Structure formats: structure tokens, C-alpha cells
Amino acid sequence: MTTEWETGAMVIDTARQRLGRVMDHLGTRLQLRPPNGGREWDADPAYVRPAMEHEILKASARDAKHRRTP
Question: Are 22 and 35 in contact (CB under 8 A)?
């Protein structure tokens, strides 16, 4: 099954258990980036699913906590 992911969509790479934003499509791979920036990684679309709202909120809270920690 092939799903065309929109650039900017928030997804979960289930192979890595990571939340990412779709940045680009390269051949049969997706390029994902952490929501608040960082290094992109390639993901197999077969292992990508839409992120649920609670997963996005959890990642945002975790990132905010890390920014506050000296």
C-alpha cells in the first residue's frame, strides 16, 4: 500500500518510534525532521503513520522541558 504524505504532515516513524514532520519525498523514501528542527532522517513509508494529537502534545511538552533545563 502506498500513501502519499503531504509535506508538513506530522507522522510517527514506527521503525524508530520517532515523531517527525514530512519534509520531502526522495524516490520511495520520506525525509522526516524532528518537529522543532534537527537532523533529517529517511523513513520507509510502509512504517509511517499519522501522528495522533496526544503524541504531538507529548513531544512538545518534552521539548519545552528540555529548553528550560540548564
Answer: no
- What's the order of all strands across the beta sheet hosting 41-43? 41-43, 29-33, 18-26, 10-13, 48-50
pLDDT digits (tens, 9 = 90+) for 3-33: 689 999 999 999 999 999 999 999 999 999 9
Tell me the whole-structure pTM to 2 decimals: 0.81
Residues 6+ apart with CB under 8 A from 25: 5, 31
How far apart are alpha carbons 47 and 67 in whole angstroms?
30
Report CA torsion sign: 43, 8, 60, 68: positive
Contact 59, 53 (CB under 8 A): no
